[in-house]
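pinned: reference chain
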Amino acid sequence: MISIILIILLIVSISKPDIFLSAKNKAKLSEEEIKKYANNSRKIYSIIIILFESTSLITYGSEILSIIGIIAAIVSIILFFKLSLPAIKENKAMLEKNN
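pinned: its structure tokens
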């Protein structure tokens, strides 16, 4: 049940990625920086959704789906370290620069 709530929250945050950006930070960032923040946030959230979906395949799927879920989990972990961590660091640097 909690995974469904998390997936819904992540889907909403993909549609409006600056929803977690406070009004104070929105006022300090330029339009270009807000767009870059939104793109980085979409990368982060989409990889997290892939990880949640793959763990649900592992948990609730048949034997074949469990194998596919394990492969998807491994790929999503690799993508997290290749794409999401640099995006997290870039978003953090943007916010710290403007504070």
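why pinned: The radius of gyration is 16 Å. The mean pLDDT is 83.
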